[in-house]
Design brief:
CATH class of chain B: Alpha Beta
Order of helices and strands of chain B: HEEEHHEHEHEHHEHEHEHHEH
Radius of gyration of chain B: 24 Å
CATH topology of the largest domain in chain A: TIM Barrel
CATH topology of chain B: TIM Barrel
CATH superfamily of the largest domain in chain A: Dihydropteroate synthase-like
Largest sheet of chain B: 8 strands, parallel
Oligomer: heterodimer
CATH architecture of chain B: Alpha-Beta Barrel
Strand order of the largest sheet of chain A: 10-9-8-7-6-3-12-11
Largest interface: A-B, 155 and 125 residues
Shape of chain B: globular
Chain lengths: 482, 418
């Protein structure tokens, strides 16, 4: 595990190598206790361990300590630079990664997903496609998952046609834009239409980098650096562009599907490893993956191409892509990407749970059914969504199972006759309804007898999947008198 | 409910048990003016601190400042750099486990399948292809089971015919291995006797000549009885018994199963629910009876959308720990990719914009498998033919050095796409 060093430059340190002393040296050392720690050394220790933040030290944010503050920032910045394109509420920030593997900390800035349009499309098709890109979304455990950007490709090669297309897209959407052409004249025509929207431009290559660099500087936009599977050239371009005055760069080491898939995934992995493990600054930029590349193959079956795009995208995302450019707008292609992205970027240290308690749906009265489920977020939101979709009037008890799903909670005895009895009491359910019938999840069926005995309530075993609730209630509610 | 679940995923989604450490993420927010992190009340274990938060120049947080201060003159030529991909050497490696035994070795299989052997994280270095390419097992059930329509249509003709089903998996779908799930032995289903279960396994062994995995019903007592019977009947076949659990420790049946497996030359699949301490604990118990080379781990596979990220991370952690020298985790791992079908998005009819489930289902199983392939899984239990084909294709491609590529990585920019 060698660390290479830039000649004449002090090598950065990983957090492992940063000692509290390194931090202490840069603190005010007054032991003023404004941070509520007993002294500056204690603060430094907790800062290095991630328990406190720089902002917890107010004196550091006075003019007196500006230099120290900046040095501390240097010490604690991510190994992959965060780059933002687009503006306003929908702006897209990519990169900003601290670690190679998610469990080492967590991943920040979910992979942006852009969908392409091109300059041969009719105005009508263009507007329709851009509208669909903006509209596509999926409601997943209470979150709206959506696409992030529009990539405009120059297929005609004509700057005027490209400019016109960019103008149409700008008028049709607020989504961030990626302007794609290897011809600086085309990119310039596009930039002339984007005003202050700060698009990402694609791409500087070994051939065009001086002109692309001038454009990126003149328009204050981030720039993709493209090579065709040549990390050494990639680094050379980055170093040169840095020297040119450009810092907001995105790396595209080239995406190839099929025959080139191995090379693509291994190159992305090598670059991200260099950035996070070797702290190589020239590799420390967001990575672009282009699942759209599958569409250049000879294959003629659309479904096969879409399938390839779906699996390529998911692998690129797992292998460190910070931004994807895709073509397919099919839900079955995009859904796995949106969900996997959401999952991959959750904090691996946090259980995903919702607050326990009783929830009311519709207009329940004293005769309405009472259901119970657990407080794992996905379980709750799934049940909630099914109840709302069916327009049911009911009470839903959300039991505290420490964020475990029904199946896990039953097995781990977090969801048991006793815990149901406790929940019934705490939530004072008997005051809400004039019956004593509780519907438990089908996956908790084996608790029914014991719970009836312990609670005195009649237990109905509901469906195993809450999508079966409407039918279940139609057939079983109100319950037949005993 | 119509989906396949290989395991009782007891501790699925137990994020609270994932003892990953913490580091104040607000640092990022502070440094970059990013205001979108919501991580206020997390805790951390200092003793476990095992992460890199490499520093970067402050320029990285300030757009206006260059990383490398501009030279007095813009360079007119490329400043040449080299790239040396890291060649990481790890102190540990994953054990090799051989499934199945040929006649020469006391079994009756035509071929064996070896898994494991990894000396680096999966697909981390193109110069280091997998020692053994990951293998694929296809499922067979010993009774009629409720499957999503998309899966059922491929196997409808062999349902309730385990031998025929196994043959089809090998001959039509190219299975490296066949898994026979003895679901009917479940005391809550048919409570089939160990004797009958062993006969089913025998039928499958006669129907195909690939290695066999034998799946139980999840009841620690019944599985122990069934596995003991099967182990004796199929002595020498080097079956993989799926699975042994910490529940068996509680039920005091683990020792009997382990002894039966050892005495009759079989392998054990140690199943735990997304918890590495439990995985290590179970392995330690097994070491009392078994050679280490006869143990495979199942760390739990959760469906995409239902906690796949926990499976992904537990596999990355386990593999990294093993390579760094944690011997108790240095076993090959298996994934029940079929558990993907537990996700509603895989099997349920949805609004038209989300596409037909005929495509959504298999893509779900495929993405589940590919994600864990990248996390280092050595053996996949699968069902849908399209998923199997894709996984096999990707395993083949990722194992190559990519020199056969025919296109340029910039063809897409100006391509006409319908």
């Amino acid at each position: 595990m060698t660390h290479r060093t830039e000649p004449g430059k002090q090598r950065k340190k990983s957090i492992r190598e940063i000692s509290p002393i390194d931090v202490y040296k840069l603190l005010p050392k007054t032991n003023c206790q404004e941070c509520h720690e007993s002294n500056c050394m204690a603060f430094a220790t907790r800062l290095v361990n991630g328990e406190l933040m720089l902002t917890d030290c107010p004196p550091l944010f006075t003019d007196m300590y500006q230099a120290e503050r900046e040095d501390l920032g240097l010490l604690l910045a991510p190994s992959v630079r965060a780059v933002t394109f687009g503006t306003g509420a929908q702006q897209c920030t990519i990169g900003g990664k601290y670690v190679l593997q998610r469990h080492e900390f967590m991943y920040h800035n979910p992979t942006g997903i852009a969908i392409d349009v091109d300059d041969l499309m009719t105005d009508e098709n263009l507007r329709e496609r851009v509208h669909r890109i903006g509209q596509f979304s999926y409601n997943y455990i209470g979150r709206k998952l959506a696409l992030n950007a529009v990539a405009i490709r120059s297929v005609s090669g004509d700057p005027a046609a490209f400019g016109k297309t960019v103008r149409t897209v700008c008028n049709a959407t607020d989504l961030p834009l990626i302007l794609c052409s290897l011809d600086p004249a085309v990119i310039q025509a596009g930039l002339a239409e984007t005003g202050d929207r700060r698009p990402l431009i694609y791409a500087a290559t070994e051939k065009n980098w001086t002109q692309m660099a001038d454009l990126a500087l003149a328009f204050h936009v981030p720039l993709v650096v493209h090579t065709d599977g040549d990390p050494a050239l990639q680094k050379s371009l980055v170093k040169t562009l840095n020297a040119w005055g450009l810092a907001d760069l995105v790396l595209d080491p080239g995406t190839l599907a099929e025959d080139g898939l191995s090379e693509t995934l291994h190159t992305l992995t090598a670059l991200r490893t260099a950035a996070c493990r070797d702290l190589d600054e020239l590799s420390g930029y967001p990575l672009l993956g282009v699942p759209l590349a599958v569409w250049t193959s000879e294959e003629i079956s659309m479904d096969v191409l879409k399938w390839r795009e779906a699996i390529t995208a998911s692998m690129l995302m797992s292998r460190y892509a910070d931004l994807l450019i895709m073509h397919s707008l099919d839900g079955w292609v995009l859904l796995p990407q949106l969900i996997w992205r959401f999952n991959l970027y959750t904090d691996p240290r946090k259980p995903v749970s919702v607050e326990a308690g009783i929830r009311m749906f519709g207009h329940p009265d004293k005769n309405s059914p009472v259901l119970i489920t657990t407080n794992y977020a996905l379980t709750f939101f799934t049940v909630e969504s099914d109840i709302k979709t069916a327009g049911l009037d009911c009470y839903l008890m959300v039991a505290d199972t420490g964020g475990l799903s029904v199946e896990s909670a039953v097995a781990g005895r977090y969801f048991s006759a006793d815990s149901i009895v406790t929940a019934l009491k705490e939530m004072q359910v008997e005051n809400l309804v004039c019956h004593k019938t509780l519907i438990i999840p089908g996956l908790a069926a084996r608790l029914s007898g014991e719970t009836e005995e312990a609670s005195g309530w009649k237990i109905l075993v509901g469906p195993k999947d809450s999508s079966g609730l409407p039918q279940f209630l139609r057939q079983r509610w109100p319950p037949h008198p005993a | 409910m119509s989906y396949v679940v290989h395991k009782k995923n007891k501790e699925t989604e137990r994020a609270d048990e994932i003892d990953v450490l913490s580091l104040a993420p607000r640092i990022l927010e502070l440094l970059q003016g990013v205001q979108q992190l919501e991580l206020e009340n997390f805790s951390m274990e200092i003793g476990d601190l095992d992460l890199f938060i490499p520093s970067q120049s402050p320029a990285h947080s300030l757009q206006s400042v260059s990383l490398h201060p501009p030279l007095p003159q813009k360079p007119s030529e490329l400043i040449r750099e080299s790239f040396e991909p890291r060649t990481a050497r790890y102190p540990g490696h994953i054990r090799e486990v051989v499934l199945g035994a040929t006649r020469a070795d006391g079994g009756s299989r035509a071929r064996t399948v070896t898994i494991g052997g990894a000396m680096t994280p999966a697909y981390a270095d193109i110069r280091v292809p997998p020692v053994h390419p990951p293998a694929i097992s296809l499922d067979v059930f010993d009774m009629k089971v409720s499957l999503p329509r998309v899966l059922r249509e491929h196997v409808a003709e062999v349902m309730e015919d385990p031998a025929g089903w196994a043959r089809m998996n090998v001959e039509k779908f190219g299975a490296d291995i066949v898994t026979i799930h003895l679901m009917s032995t479940d005391p809550l289903i048919r409570d089939t006797s160990p004797r009958q279960a062993a006969e089913t396994v025998e039928e499958v062994l006669q129907a195909v000549n690939v290695p066999i995995i034998v799946g139980g019903c999840g009841d620690p007592k019944k599985d122990a009885a069934v596995f003991a019977e099967v182990a004796e009947m199929a002595a020498g076949e080097r079956l993989l018994l799926n699975s042994v659990t910490l529940d068996m420790v509680e039920a005091k049946t683990l020792g009997a199963v382990a002894k039966a497996a050892r005495d009759h030359g079989h392998l054990l699949l140690a199943f735990t629910g997304l918890e590495l301490n439990n995985a290590k604990e179970l392995n330690r118990r097994l070491y009392e009876y078994m050679p280490h080379e006869q143990i495979v781990m199942d760390l739990t596979t959760v469906a995409l959308g239902y906690g796949l990220e926990y499976s992904f991370t537990i596999h990355e952690r386990a593999r990294y720990a093993a390579l760094m020298g944690d011997d108790e985790l240095a076993h090959p791992v298996i994934s029940a990719a079929t558990n993907a079908w537990a996700a509603r998005e895989a099997w349920m009819a949805m609004a038209p914009e989300y596409g037909p489930r005929e495509l959504r289902g298999p893509v779900w199983e495929t993405v589940n498998a590919l994600t864990l392939l990248l996390a280092g899984v050595d053996l996949f239990m699968m069902m849908h033919p399209a998923s199997v084909l894709t996984l096999r294709d990707v395993i083949y491609r990722l194992g190559s050095n990519g020199s056969g590529r025919t296109s340029s990585a910039r063809d897409w920019v100006g391509a006409r796409i319908s």
